[in-house]
Every structure is written in structure tokens, then in C-alpha cells.
Amino acid sequence: MNSDVRHSAEYKRVINSPRWRKLREQLIHAYDSVCQRCKKKSDKLSLHHKNYERLGKERLTDLELVCENCHPSADEERKRAGQDSRAAASYDRAQKTYFTKKFGEENLGYQTPNDEAQFADWVTRKEESRNQGYSE
User: Fold this and answer.
1) DSSP label of 112
2) Inter-axis angle of helices 113-131 and 71-103, nearest 10
3) If I label 19, which of 55, 68, 112, 116 is the partner at 20 to 30 A Cα–Cα?
4) Percentage of residues in the chain having pLDDT higher than 70
């Protein structure tokens, strides 16, 4: 899910649900009202999504109890992690496209040491074309 998820109706439904309120209260009790990041007691704790992969069906590992001071940095980390995962997915798609064009549907991937260099050159050309407003 993208960064606009916090503005979606589904997100609002989840965080306003009785299930979410109960989960938050259970975690506040379990962590004795202590922020999982700074380890300080607080009466202003939020249940933070580390990711939105299972929105509405979160695992405890998807969540973190944070104070209002730590919440902005937690949001930034989630944003950076999302950008990293999108970049990795984009790279994987580029590899699949390149090797399918090179080897056909068998998509054999790197076969020789030179294949990696050729792929890197292809990616560079695609980036340059994109920056010039062209598409290969």
C-alpha cells in the first residue's frame, strides 16, 4: 500500500474499530505504558503500523507502541522502508524484462559474468532515456 493509506477509508475504519482500540489498550498494558522506542513511560501512546501489508489483519510484529515524540521518526522509517521495497521490486521487474528479452520466456538470468555488466548498461540507458523523455 502506498503512503496515502493513512487517508483511506479502510485505514480510518481499522483504527477507529473496537478491535483496534482493544489491541492498543492490551499493548499499553503489556508494555506498562512504555514507548517501545525511547523506553519512557507515557500517557500518550499510539499503535504504529510498521507496514500496511496486512491492514486490518495486523500481526503484532507489524505494530509498535510509540509515544508522540517517537511516532514521527517511526513514520519516516516506514516511508523509507516502503521506498526501498518499491525500488527492489522495480529492479526485479527490470531484470525480468531484460532477461526475457535476451533469452526469451525461459528467462535464464545471469549466465556469464558479462551478463551482469550488460544488464547494468541496459538499466543506465533506460534511465537516460526516461530522463530525456523517451522510452526504449
Assistant:
1) S
2) 110
3) 68
4) 82
pTM for this prediction: 0.59
**10 and 56 in contact (C-beta within 8 Å)?**
yes
Query: Is residue 62 within 8 Å of 49, Cβ to Cβ?
Result: yes
3-state secondary structure 66-91: EECCCHHHHHHHHHHHHHHHHHHHHH
For cell 526485479, what's the residue? Answer: 92
Per residue in 72-118, pLDDT tens? 999 999 988 877 667 667 777 777 788 788 777 766 666 666 777 78
Q: Determine how β-strand 45-49 pairs with β-strand 63-67.
A: antiparallel
Alpha helix segments (H runs only) across 1-70: 9-15, 18-30
> Which residue range(s) make up the domain with 47?
3-69
Is residue 136, in this structure, part of any structural domain at all? no
| Calculated CA dihedral for residues 44, 49, 54, 59, nearest 10 degrees | -70
Same domain, 9 and 59: yes
Please tell me whether residues 113 and 58 are part of one structural domain.
no
